[in-house]
Amino acid sequence: MLELVDCDYWWKMLVLPCPPGATPLEAHVRIRQPQGFVQELTTRDVEVRDGRAHVRILYPLLDDGRYDPSHATWNGSWEMGEYQIELRLSGAEGEIARGTMSLDPHSFFPCTRSPIAVDARPQFIECAARQFLYINEDTACFVIRIRKHRVSACEVSADVTSRGGAAVLAGPWRFRLTHEFREQSFDTTGWPTGEYWIRIRVLREGEPVGPFCIRKFWKQVSSPPSGPEVLELGGYPEVLVDDFACAEVEGVQFVPDRLRTSGAPLVAPTAPHEEEMLSVESLTWNEAAQRYECVYVNSGGRLERKDTEPEREYLKLLAVSSDGEHWEKPRLGQVEYEGSRDNNILRDERDCPTRMIRFHKTRKDIMDHDIECAQFRFYDPDRDGSVNLDNVFLASGKRYFPLECKSLGDAQAAQQAADAERALQSSLRPDGLGVLDSPQEPASPDGCFRPRSGEFWPFEKRGDLYLALTREPLLYLGVGMDLMHSSESMRCHVEDTGRKRLLWYFRPAAPAYPPHGAVYDNMHLGLRCLAVLWTDDGLHYHRQFVLGPDQRDRFGTQFYGMGLLQKFGACGDAPGRPVLGKLFCNISQAFPTRNLYLGMVLAHWGIEQTQSPELVWSRDLLHFHRFAQQRRSLIELGAGGSFDAGMIRPRCTYHEFGDEWWYHYTGINTRHNGYVVMARLHTVDEMRREYPNWAEAPYSCTWEGTFADGKATRYLPGVARGKPYRLAHAEAVEGRGRLKTHPLRVDGDTLLINAATEPDGWVLVRVLDETGQPVTDPPVRFQGDATAAPVADLGPRRGQAVVVEFTIYQARLYSFQIA
After folding, report:
1. Model confidence pTM above 0.90
2. Which residues, 6+ apart, have CB-to-CB distance to 804 below 8 Å?
3. Confidence of residue 7 (pLDDT cuts 50, 70, 90)
4. What is the spatial distance between Cα 596 and Cα 445, in angstroms, rounded to a whole number?
5. pLDDT by residue (tens digit) across 490-536?
6. Which domains does the chain have, with CATH numbers?
7. Rounded to the nearest 5 degrees, what angle is found at the Cα of 810, between the Cα atoms of 809 and 815?
């Protein structure tokens, strides 16, 4: 049997049994690395000891494996492939011995409860694309350096090819590496959508040795909406996030704004009936009592109180405030807890059939599905006719609908589902990421619909009958950038009621190559970005990436979730049809087709283990944009020690109170892994045993300190405030700036602007007709602070088009609209 023995980072020893008396003179080694490249070596560095030949080869193991997705095997791992090594010993009389072996790249990595495909032990080069996804960009970049604690220096060559391609598209380059990062940019103009490989190989005396180290990145070429000939506002404000609405821009920059926070939580646990995790259910103004009222609920807590959690799970709690800044808990005397009614409990909905079941539960009570009588089969166009898109939805990829339904085909299929569920429950990892490994076989080979855990299926609901609209799942739970995988749940579901289109936003994940990845991240196997899956008819589905971190983001940035802004208590801003559930999806929304959609993306900084939301926007729900310059969080993390110093989990909803919008969010005082300590670990020793990789975190000092910080974790509601639509604005770079719009369709009576000026500042507004003649003469000069200031009467121009010119001086212009 052939064995591989490490000598150092450069040299390896192959050991093979040798026949007695044999005198090998030469060894021939053939190695096929996981990506398919083959290296062949011949050496005379052979020594026979105790009947075994020891062959020394120069072969630095710098290839980490394939990092290919694996369908429906959500076990926290990639398809890494294997090294296939063949050794032939030759003597004067020919071949003496031969041996083969396989080498699994997973053995290169640290491992806790699952493989951690970050920072392979033999790897002494750190290299990755500066960003792993380029959308409509023609310049890419990678960074490279050595790990100085492993080797002192080395020389490498690098180039770029398409996936598995031989033709060099960029490079080659040669670098003499040190511990300082080198950056190499290259042009990708004309490259089509696809996966590309950065190939690095170590040079020894100018010659390549060892495997190719492959670092993947992805490019997408798509067609975002172009500037319109005539802009249709449709009664919605045009928020000035960019120059899309402008035909001319002179001396103006577009700047993101920040919401205002108080620095204190809306409410914190102070009583036995409250948990460490609290969530807002509603926030209202009580006119009769002249006060704000917040109904909040328990969302989880410390492991030490787990056995009594059902006593608190469905409590509805009340906090009140006269000014929205200072909150108190009234003594309601309505519900007894631990022998006392001296508390702020409104009611206990434990036995209420209409209760809202907490996040991460199935919420059967508010979903229009029949679990007991549901029947399933594949859609047949001849038998079933046309598909009604109003009844189309996408089923969860986890263990809920349809797996929880009682009738899924014959008894054998039901038994298989039960076995799968039992296996699932036993395979779930403590952090909730595990889903049953599914066999690699075509779905339902006998024609019966038999879904498996880890699959997303589209259905049309017809009463108790559910028609599976495709013959294969649309998505699998897992990692990968093939647009066929989503890490955990869907992030957001949107209905475009104007286009009659359904869209689902999910999270592909790229390999967590250092310096981006962190072994202590909760999902150390991948770097999450965002993609969309959409359909216009329920039968044909399309997909593309929508957002990924770029080179302006810090290393390790990922996108945790997203959603569009909507008014609290509404499903977007269109009635649409009731969004059908049974989808493990954080946000479900409906909007009419409009010129601009504002939203939030939750950035997760994997190295720091912190999170905060950022403003994003889209014109078509398929292409999303971020600020390139002056980028900032919409809600900034709090100062050290504050309730929201570690993470901010926003709700993409706002409450209207007077001339302000209030956004409630969840503030977390610790980093991302704090929850695991608080809710799932008993002791420091258990933490060290289950999560030894946490010792690598740069912010961890001692195990005891990390454990104490985790046990102090609190998830508490906070409120961020701002005036309506004041999320971004246009301002002059120096002195005066000017904007001139494309023609605007007049579909209302009045031109309104949302603006604020300095004491000596102003916004000058001129309205022109399609021939360039002034409609407002003289121009209107606005000064002050207003969210909907009327600046022109357009009633006589209804149905026509006008052009608006804004001159800005010491002012912020947030938006304009025709109402």
Report:
1. yes
2. 740, 741, 744, 751, 765, 766, 767, 768, 792, 816
3. confident
4. 45
5. 888 899 988 999 999 999 999 999 999 999 998 888 999 999 999 99
6. 3-108 (2.60.40.10), 125-220 (2.60.40.1930), 238-257+726-818 (2.60.120.260), 260-348 (no CATH), 364-437+446-634 (no CATH)
7. 80
